[in-house]
Amino acid sequence: MAFRSDTLVEESRAAALPRKGAMRRIFDRNIHAYVFLLPWLIGFFGLTLGPALASLYLSFTNYDLLQSPDWVGAANYVRIATADPKFAASMKVTFLYVLLSVPLKLAFALLIAMAFNRGIKGLTLYRAIFYLPSLLGSSVAIAVLWRQLFASDGLVNMALWQLFGYEGPSWISNPNYSLYTLVILSIWQFGSPMIIFLAGLRQIPADMYEAAEIDGASKQRQFFRITLPLLTPVIFFNAVIQTIEAFKAFTPAFIISEGTGGPINSTLFYTLYLYQEAFGFFRMGYASALAWVLVVIISLFTAFSFLSARYWVHYDD
Amino acid sequence: MTDAVTSSRPSLGGQRSPIRSVLLHGALILFSLAMLYPILWMISGSLRPQEELFGSSSLIPSSVDLGGYIRGWTGLRVSFGQFFWNSLFIAVLATIGNVVGCSLAAFAFARLRFGGRNFWFALMLGTLMLPYHVVLIPQYILFLELGWVNTSLPLIVPKYLATDAFFIFLMVQFFRGIPRELDEAAVMDGCSPFRIYWKIMLPLSLPVLATAAIFSFIWTWDDFFGPLIYLNDINTYTVQLGLRSFVDSTGSSDWTALFAMSNLSLVPVFLFFLFFQRLLIEGIATTGMKR
Predict the structure, then answer these.
(1) Which of the residues B113, B118, B198, B209 has an alpha carbon 20 to 30 A from that of A32?
(2) Which ipTM value was assigned to this complex?
(3) What is the Cα–Cα distance from B186 to B198, expressed in whole angstroms?
């Protein structure tokens, strides 16, 4: 007896309850499905949609948790756009961080993945070693370690002194360098995009390279004409994911600057600023407006990525 | 799905000269060492006599001194034992919640037909893109009103309500790959959807459930932002919050003890890495997880 596969559940109900009407069957199968879906539905309305709408409302108010929200119209947004030097500073820091860390991280990831691609002994071990920092990197422990590495008497300066006789500054307490220590921390975690690149490289059919080889194409040419174009969907994917993550970075900046975003706002990531406004000063309305500005920025960025994709991402079909 | 990802690919043509191969390995080994040096430095630093941490970039301590671990463990008003217990409690319950909550929703989306399925599915995908900052403040107000601040409930209960849409998506993809003939046969035998979920789908989905569980555990264990907001009483602190307080209280005066506690905080994640490396790497390769 053949069932059409996608109507599995309701047909069986029909077989089991032949006398009940069609409406009853539909009702039954809906009930079952919605029982499964119930936890998610509660979460969706109670913890996602409801709060998102509430924060949209709060962003037009002043609210300090004690007195009820005070409607101020677009004042919060106006202040963000025109009269908030800390907002401007945090945007500058965040964009600099995104623009530096994402391309460098992806370049590293691709470079190492390429080195592995041609089949190499010990791949599993190398890959594990390079992946480990990705797994550990967002923890407080690694941020603590970074504070030591880039302190004035930390490992980096010790090594610089021993190798080159150069006396380095305190990298984390110098506003000219502090952000770059965080960029290095991000690049250090190139392991997970590397794994995604490796999986992508495996999808490229080997006979393409063989054909190119027969036609006498150089390795360089093979890279630019075969590998890179066929890898663009993976590059695109990695770039979007890593950029969104970079916009949301929080923990390392918080630990390294002890929650201040200093020195002189040089590590004031956007999320850190938002946290300070909400849970340091309890300006919940203003912080909600900041959150919505972040959504708009991330959405604009994502939309732009997808629009640009049609010009540089190569799809088979 | 296993071999495509983990087995090394046969070399193309295999025409790499031995010299180039040695050079490549040499470069990779040097690079691996450079990558791991900070972590090894932290491990060796935690075992040194305190005064030796500065002035030598060598990894070998002159003598092994466990003092850092002893000073660190009791370095705050509440011992790290309490923080570890709190972290473990939250991570285990949150992990169970994620697996249960997300698999229920994923089963409905992947296997049941019902009115509004595509609508809800699209909404679920939409929540994937939403930064949590948007829901942060109203959620905080909600949990404050419920009297849940300073308890672990805000960090656990939402997981049972499948708020990590990413894992739903992951499971839907996997469930769809399981042959329908299996549940068709079960339906013919009069199996209810609940039994199909419990007796057929879950046992056949152990790889994806394990992947989701491992990543849930690691992410919850590492989470700093959630505990930072909801846990203000030192007795409720997780390990990550404990470490942060320890940094603030010792400043840069006792790196040995700070390193010792940092190392301990990484042990659970490292154990998962050691035993489930394959699942972790496959998880990333097949789904593109962010870390």
Answers:
(1) B209
(2) 0.86
(3) 12
